[in-house]
Amino acid sequence: MLNSLSGRFLILTVIFVMLAEVLIFVPSVARFREDFLLARLERAQIASLALLADDMISPELEAELLANAGVYNVVLRRDQMRELVLSSEVPGPIAATYDLRDPGPAQLIGGALSRLLTTEPQIIRLIGSPLREAGQLIEVTMDTADLREAMLDYGLRILLLSAMISIVTASLLFFSVRVLLVRPIKGVVAHMQAYAAAPEDARRVIRPSASVRELREAEEALQLLQTQMTQALRQKERLAQLGGAVARVSHDLRNILTSAQLFTDRIERSEDPAVRRLAPKLVNSITRAVSLCESTLAFGRAEEPAPVLTLFNLAELAHEVLEAERLAIGEHDVSLSEDIPASMMIRGDPEQIYRALSNLVRNARQAIVASGKPGEINLTALHDDDDWVIRVCDTGPGLPPKAREHLFQPFQGGARKGGSGLGLAIVVELVRGHGGTLELIRSDASGTLFEIRLPMHDMEEKRASRAR
């Protein structure tokens, strides 16, 4: 109950209403005290009229008039003369004097709080203006016992009324919040839970119905999000089905093209000059088609297997990569070099790191060969406090702007004509599996530089080292 929105709203409402009532309580009690004292002055003035009507009254009548007025003596000032009209014995010293002719709010509130906090009765003097201009001033002395009792009684009634008002107000607000806010919010939550159970079902997308503007805006935003997600899930399903179909077609097509490659070997031995001239082009076309099929099949797997992390010598692995590329260079003027410490050991999956470096070096070699100019490919490696850093740098023509826009996206980041655009996408996936990153540092007319960063420590080791 207390953890719910309506429960907390109820508690806050009670607190704020009671706070407001307290702020009202103090001025109300101060006003009550002023009215009480003014009433005493009025009763004292009425009692003094008996003496004004008859200059001589008996002591018994004078005592009765003072008792009925609730004062000990009455002093009137008329015609610039101060006259003790009624008097009796004052039982104690006068503790304070209050002038009620033109009191300020601070004076009234301070006097009221002082009276409430003083438990012992006191004798006080009151000064006020007579009614109907029956003089310039009236002054009385009185006991505060009945004043404090009246103020406490009035204050308790005010507090009781305030408590009743706060309870009624809080209850009304509580039920209003439940109807106007909590119920619609629970409806939105129910829609979200129903949609989460079957996000592909468009019938479960929420339909905005709230009358509160903010809730309706939230429902409309949720409707847009659910609609986009449902469409994305449908598109993902269609793409998955299409990917499966492409993989099957690529598999069969690869087998057909592999058989065609065997026949091209015989065609190349033909004595016909036209056939000998066209045969290399046919062989290259078939080779590119086979390569595309193999890349598509490789990328179309559900996912790359998790890397098996071991410590291995990076320099030896890089040497193997470059040796394999030298066989493919043939007569082209492309030089390969490496600058990796011979004792540098890194942790990773040797097979997957080999594939990643091979793809990057192969892309660099193909770019240089396509430019028709000599070039160089260099492999370097170093490490800092957190990462092993491997860089593949070439002096090729650089990547075209279109290729840089979709560099790591499959089937879109191809930099050469006839390329599949899968090489860098595969490298990114392999490096990400190691918790690392692949970044294009630069690519311009002077060449291209890719950088692979592999973390030296996993998350647990990082936390432990930071704790130390």
Automatic annotation (TrEMBL):
EC number: 2.7.13.3
Domain (Histidine kinase) ranges: 248-458
Entries under SMART domains matching the protein: HATPase_c, HisKA
Reactions this protein catalyses: ATP + protein L-histidine = ADP + protein N-phospho-L-histidine
Gene3D superfamilies found in the cross-reference section: 1.10.287.130, Histidine kinase-like ATPase, C-terminal domain
Coiled-coil zones: 215-242
PROSITE patterns for the chain: HIS_KIN
Name by which UniProt lists this protein: histidine kinase
Annotated source species: Citreimonas salinaria
